[in-house]
Amino acid sequence: MSHHGLRRRAATVFAVAACATGALGGCAGGTTGVPSSATSPTTAVDTCAVAVARIVGAVRDVVAGYSLPVGPVGPVGTTSPSTAATSTPSTSPATDAPASSSLEGALAAARDAVQRDGCDRGRFVDSLGRGLREVPARGAIAAAVLARLTATITGQVAATPVTREVATADQLRAALAEAPAGSTVRLAAGEIRLDDPLVILDGVTLVGAGQAATTLRTAAPDAGVLVLSTGRVELSGLTLARAPGTTGSGILTGTSVALVLTGVTVSGSRPSGASTGGAGVHLSAQSGDPAPGRTTLEVTGSTFADNAWAGIVVGGAHRVSIERSTFRGNGECGVCFLGSSDGSVSASEFAGNAVGLAAVGTSHPVVVDVTVTGGTVGVQADDTAAPTMQGVRVSGTSRAAFIFAGSSSGVLEDATCTKVPVGIGVGPQAAPTLTRTGTCSLAGG
After folding, report:
1. Is 392 helix (H, G, I), strand (E, B) or coil?
2. Which tens digit of pLDDT belongs to each residue from 216-250?
3. In terms of CATH, what superfamily is 183-444?
4. Cβ–Cβ under 8 Å, residues 377 and 403
């Protein structure tokens, strides 16, 4: 199952918990702590303890379904971008709908017990909190789900959006567990070290004190930040940098995401020993995932530097909007469009990337007013990709300014080539439309 399916299941579980929590809180708050006349004190205590145990057991089952690693995030190390680089983590929960149904039943039974037997509110919640703290969670996703369920069931999640200020990783994770959708978490200036992936399950905004002021320094395996929310997630005014000697990507998302990066730097991503990972941002997708039908990534005024695979990898049917951003020194490409992805890149600069922009598979991005300097190739299209490019300026590449390989097509208009061995290389099966490219020498077809 893709991250899209995983998040849908988590959303269902949280909705069940939130609904039942309201009932529990209201019932417990409305009692005097004295058992009803039909129930003896001893029976009430036993019934309340059983209700707590049943909730804890149901939560244990739900969390066990998410106790999986983040998983691989795509291959690196190939000579040119490949359509094979569209894999997504196989984080399929081990349990299915019965787990959330069991939790719903446990919470309903607890509600009935509270109403019938007059469980003491404080004692009930304290006992429930102690039990939930004993639930094991293997992996970052399971830990985030457990934290959110605990906060929801024990009434720690606010009813309306809130603003929280944090300065440490523990404070940040606690804020994400307790903040409802639409909330804002402000990160203090300085460095916050992440030893495990930061999992975002709801549509929230993370605001730093500035790219040069707030740094999330990640040593987390696989991904520094894992976005599983289907709601709008915004990051601004911060740097996400991988700690030296550690491996993984910067930000990893699933299919149905709405991620906004404004004034963000992502740098230093490195592949693991299995040659996976190493993207600054990876919009992942699996075969069969539904098309999002919306823009899934908006980037403005951001920098992607020194990532071993790519600055941004756009997989599946993701659609992006990238404006006024910089891609520098990324290993295979500044931006890689894979699968059937599309979107636009405008008013941006690419410097020293192996390939500035790559479009493979059936992707069809629009590239406008872009400058590419250094590296091996400015823009490369392969397979049946069909990029539309206007006002692209390429200089100082070691192989070519533009390459159309495979059966690629598309449009190249108003291109400028300076100090390059080949301006436009066209393969025998490629058929681009070239207009006003007089400064770019033509080789091949």
Report:
1. strand
2. 999 998 899 999 998 999 999 999 999 999 999 99
3. Single-stranded right-handed beta-helix, Pectin lyase-like (2.160.20.10)
4. yes
